[in-house]
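Entry for glutathione complex. Fields follow.
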Amino acid sequence: MHPPVLYSFRRCPFAIRARLALAASGLQPGADLELREVALKAKPPELLATSSNATVPALVLGAAGDGNAGDGQPIVLTESLAVMQWALERQDPRGWWQDRSAAEHQAIHALVAQNDGPFKHHLDRFKYASRYGTAGVSERHKHRQAALVILRGWNQRLLHGGWLLGGQPSLADWALLPFVRQFRLADPSGFDAEPMLVALQAWLQRLSASAELRAVLEPPWAARWPWRSPGWLYHLALARDWQAARAEGAYCHATRGRTLGEVGFIHLSDAHQVEPTARRFYGDLQSGEVVVLHLEPDRLAAAGLDVRHEPAPDSGELFPHLYGGALPLSAVLLAAPWQR
Ligand SMILES: N[C@@H](CCC(=O)N[C@@H](CS)C(=O)NCC(=O)O)C(=O)O
């Protein structure tokens, strides 16, 4: 019934590798799968409910109708490698995985394990040094050096044919690409100047310029704003009002140009109402001037506020209205810019 659902995050290297394989297998968001862009600081309840580790990517193979789960129980792939394999076992026109020998499959698994384990460990501590408490010059240097040892090993592999497994790109090249790319982006001139990485530098340049990578970094594979869960409520706010509310600690606008005091409640939208409402009331504004506040209904209730669905004039539709006081900042999960 429902097409596969991919929970993804535009910049996540694990999600990028999954999207690369899904795209290579001929799937397209919209037509063949539903892509739900996730903000990691506000994971939608649907992801939390279906995925045990709640990381992205997660591929949910529908309750029925996609040939994967006839019994109505969704199958959830929560590992990027599993998503890649699922996609390429479906269809693999470029020969990244199918028709490879057992030894090649083993080599691919070993490379991905080395990437996701030790390489990612050192990459994180080099790239996000302040987050990992490794910002000291010698600590950061130590992790960069350890990552370089692994990269030199990969460089060696490329000397025999230009790709990690020889003369043709395989799943391993695409699975490692987003991580090597991140390593370079943390210090581009340092990476480019490494004398023992010449083959890897050329490999990265080739793959970074590829149509395959560019396609999955742009819509429809990488959406500009997070998917709007029907489990949340939404309020359209002027960005300047939202900024002022954050400074003051409370948001008291009912809608554009009208205060809570004047109206008596705050206008909200259900997920499917955000876009038409934004176009109708804010369509004259520039990108960046409007934000979509994502609200958690349980937190509104916990703050003693009441949501009532009531008819809105001229629309023939019921809209959620928030009664009982100002919008507490604690109920706002995310303020995403709205763009026409
Ligand atoms: N082993 C997982 C790792 C996925 C992963 O760590 N994704 C990150 C984003 S790049 C994530 O979802 N982090 C959010 C969290 O851990 O709460 C895979 O291969 O898919």
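NOTE: The pocket of glutathione is lined by residues 9, 12, 14, 40, 55-57, 79-81 (CB under 6 Å).
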